[in-house]
Amino acid sequence: MHVFVTGGSGTTGPSVVAELIAAGHSVTGLARSDVAAARLESLGATPLRGSLDDLDRLHRGAAAADGVVHMAYGGDFSDPDGMMRRDLAAIGALGRALEDSGKPLVVTSGTLVMPGGRVGTEKDEPDTAGFAVFRVKSEQAALDFAARGVRVSVLRLAPTVHGPRDRGFVAMLVATARQTGVSAYVGDGTNRWPAVHRLDAAALFRLALEKAPAGSVLHGASETGVTMKDIAETIGRGLGLPTVSLTPAEAATHFVNPFMAGVYAFDGPVSSALTRDLLGWSPTHPTLLEDLEHGDYLTAPAP
C-alpha cells in the first residue's frame, strides 16, 4: 500500500513511518521544511513539500495514495479555535480525496477528549466541554466520511506517548522539577494518566490503516492509568529531588500556566480493550515508569 502521511517528521511520526515501511508499505510524507524533508528521506519515505494550510497539496497527496495517516496538528496553542479550524480544513481535504474509494483514512485524536473520573471506553461519547474539546469536532468531521465511502478511523492517543527524545507532558514535568527543585503532583496525586510507548503506538497506526473498519474509534493506551503521584515520585528519585503535593492554587503558578496545572490534575483513565480485540493489538514495549527509570527522560536536555 502507498500511504500519504502528515506529521511523519514529528515526535511520534517517524516511528509510524518506519513501522509502515518495515511492513512493506511505501510512504509519502508531508514536509513543511528542509529539515522535515531530510528526516523523512532518512526513514525511506518520499517528502511532499507543503503544510496543513496547503489544502490542494493535501488533496493531491491523498488522491495519489492507497491510504492516509493524518497525525499533524499544529499552529498557535494560544488560539485553539484557529488550530481546530485548520485541522477541520485538512481533514476535509484528505477525506474528499478518498470519497467512494473504500480507502483508509486514520485521523489522530487524544484520550483527553474523554470525560474524567472514570475509565473511558471506545464506545463512550467524548466530553464536549473538556480540555481537548478542540479535538471533538475533528473526530466527528473524520467519522462523517464513513458514510461517504471512506474507511475512516479515529485513533485517540494517550496524553503520554513516551520514548526517546520525548518533548511532551512528561518531559515538561521533568523540566519543571529541575527548574523548581521539587517534583510535584496536584492534590493526593491519585489522578490517572493513560500511557503508551511510541513503538506500540506506531504498530497501532499500522493496524488501523490495514484493517480498522469504517467508523472505528480506537484507543492508543497500553496502560489504563498511571497515577501522577507515581510519576512524580519516579522523577524525584531519579533527579534526587523531594516530591511534594500542591494545591490547585499552588499548581497554577508552579507549572507552565493554569491550563497545564489543570491538565496535570486531570483524572482520565481509559481502556483499550475493544481496540485490542478488534485489531489484535498487543503492546510489548516498556511502561511509562520503566521508561522514566531507564530511558533518557532524566538525562536528555530539557524540551
Percent helix range: 40-55%
Radius of gyration: 19 Å
Total domain modules: 2
Query: Whole-number average pLDDT?
Result: 95
| Coarse morphology | globular
User: For the largest beta sheet, what order do the strands appear in spatially?
Assistant: 3-2-1-4-5-6-10
Strand portion: 15-25%
**Poorly predicted regions:** none
Helix count equals 12
Q: What CATH first level of the largest domain would be assigned? A: Alpha Beta
Note the main sheet.
7 strands, parallel
Helix/strand order: EHEHEHEHEHEEHEEHEEHEHHHH
CATH topology of the largest domain: Rossmann fold
CATH level-two architecture of the largest domain: 3-Layer(aba) Sandwich
**Structural class by secondary-structure content:** alpha/beta
Distance between the termini: 35 Å
CATH superfamily of the largest domain: NAD(P)-binding Rossmann-like Domain
Number of strands: 12
Walkthrough of the structure:
- The chain is of the alpha/beta class and 303 residues long.
- It has two domains: 2-160 and 195-223, Rossmann fold (3-Layer(aba) Sandwich); 164-193 and 225-268 and 286-294, no CATH class.
- 41% of the residues lie in helices and 20% in strands.
- The protein has helices spanning 13-22, 34-43, 55-63, 80-98, 133-143, 169-180, 198-211, 228-239, 248-254, 258-264, 273-279, 288-294; strands at 2-6, 26-31, 46-49, 67-70, 104-110, 151-157, 160-162, 183-186, 192-197, 216-220, 223-227, 243-246.
- The strands form three sheets. Strands 3-2-1-4-5-6-10 form a seven-stranded parallel β-sheet, with helices on both faces.
- Helix 4 links the parallel strand 4 and strand 5 (104-110).
- Helix 8 runs parallel beside helix 12 (288-294) and helix 9 packs across helix 10.
- The model has no long low-confidence stretch (mean pLDDT 95).
